[in-house]
Amino acid sequence: MKKIISVVLSIAMLMSLLAISTSAESKDDGVMSFAVASDLHYVEPTSEIDHDIDDPIFYYANRRAQMEHESGFIIDEFLRQCAENDDCEFILIPGDLANDGKSNLQQHLDVAEKLKRFEEETGKPVYVIAGNHDIGYDCATTPEVFKEVYSEFGYDEALEVVDGNCSYTADIGDNYRLIAADSCDPSKSTEDGLTTDRLSWIVDQAKKAKEDGKYPILMMHHNLLDHLPAQRLISRNFIIRWHLSTAEILADSGIKLVFTGHEHCSDAATYTSLLGNVIYDFATTSLTMYPLEYRMFYMTDDEIRYENKKITSIDTQALSKAVPEFTDEQIALMDEDFEAYSKEFFHHSIKYRLGRDLNFDKMGIEEDAFYYNVVKAAVTGLTDILEMPFYGENSVQELAAEYGLEIPESDYETPWHLVTALVGMHYAGSEYYDLESTEVTMLLRTLVLILRDDFAGIFDTFYLVNLANQALAGMGIDSLPKELTKLGIKVFGSVNAAEYAILGLISPLLYKFAYDNDGVDDNNGSLPGYGTVNIQSNLNNIVNNYKTLTDKIVFYVTMMVKYMFKGINIPVTF
């Protein structure tokens, strides 16, 4: 029976490979090069700026970290760079062209005008697909309206346009076919709408592409693969349903490259099917938020090269005319170092968003709720530590020492700066903070500090403990639970078993979030081209895939056991 199964699988794999390699025979060695920019989130400039944050420069930072007032000028700079770049033959934009595109048709009209002017001046085509911010039912911009507004950017020259959604196909270069698939559910805010019918359509289009001697490339808004640890659980509306089984189907249909957006991160993820076909999902960060990047691809039959490009300046004179509320100081800072300016804007935005999410009204907790004081103590303790300076008097380092924890020296001013730096690294891609790094060490130890100080603070809210604290205040004891916690640490050691167990479970997630070691660089690298697919390469892919999976399982189990064994004082070395 095993032999029969092996023979069937071998024949199936051989037929799949022959279908792909046959279409490769007609390819030439020319290079096709193009730009990919996602999530433009254009907002028309206004004369007034909202003041949501208490900061003299970055008062207009927002929860999505989007540089809304600068967005049009960032898009202009991106198009200028593409116009002057002889290697850029065309542009792909996988969704969210306008920030409020569902309800504000003018935003779409403005973006379309910019793209039209670019095409007319350069002769370089632009191909778009809708994102969740772009279309909706019973909105100003329905799928049909979207296709009409952007008719010149993929639809007019399409080989096939789907009724009822924004999907289409078009030939790009001499050897490739773009499958622009609408992955949005226009009736919901962010969820994917990649139904079985739409998936079948993609597979059929990939088959037609191969029959016509073309390599299929897929572009859609929602992510195909995880770009966060357990993204389907943590950020489920940003990745398609049944993503692994879908990746299996798409990889075996001959699709090697997928361009997505939505998550606003620069990340390359890979999946290997059971037949050894590899598919890569390149999620591209939002063009109009830190790190202000887009991608360039250079493709031949044998090789796919890619690199990230940055927006390092904009026309601030035009910006100040369009938005006169920008001060001379803000404009000067943008002119001095626009990347640094955008990073600080990002820091204030992430801090604002996380702080906003910890608001009692946002969490729906009423003041008369019986658990109000407990939650208030926990949230206050958390935010107090995040706001503290890392070093000096009344610092995190000083408080941590009281709990037996050592905070290493660094350039980070507060835990907020550390958190936003790690989040910023996720958006920028090519994360390099492993578990031995200063950043992850500081984060883990700050987490333990929050657990100890915060939980001890929660006990202070109980009536009897509060009475005891009042009685002991005259003796110079600040908090009974906190003093008992510190005493326990002195007697039993620095970190208890429960805390190590928590760290053991959290560390794999932190590792994946802060250190990207999947073998595919997020921002600059080289991959085998479409024309390299053959039986030997697929067999090698299968072997490498099983080895990679085994290595990951061993690594994660080792990591958890290491922390847990340490927690119960069992001497273990790895």
CATH class of the largest domain: Alpha Beta
Uncertain parts: 1-29, 456-472, 479-493, 566-574
Name the CATH homologous superfamily of the largest domain.
Metallo-dependent phosphatases
**Gyration radius, to the nearest Å?**
27 Å
The N- and C-terminal alpha carbons lie at a distance of 42 Å
Give the key terms.
574 residues; alpha/beta; 2 domains; 6-stranded mixed beta sheet; 11% strand; disordered N terminus; disordered C terminus
Explained architecture:
The chain is of the alpha/beta class and 574 residues long. It has two domains: 329 residues, 4-Layer Sandwich (Purple Acid Phosphatase, chain A, domain 2), CATH 3.60.21.10; 210 residues, no CATH class. 47% of the residues lie in helices and 11% in strands. The strands form two sheets. The protein has a seven-stranded mixed β-sheet with strand order 4-5-6-7-8-10-9. Helix 3 links the parallel strand 2 and strand 3. The longest helix is centred in the last third of the chain and has 33 residues. The two termini are 42 Å apart.
Short description:
The chain has 20 helices and 13 strands. It has helices at residues 2-24, 71-84, 105-122, 143-149, 151-155, 196-211, 231-234, 243-252, 316-322, 328-336, 338-357, 360-363, 372-387, 396-402, 415-428, 438-459, 463-473, 480-492, 497-514, 535-567; strands at residues 32-36, 91-93, 126-128, 160-161, 168-172, 176-180, 215-219, 257-260, 267-272, 278-283, 293-299, 303-310, 525-528.
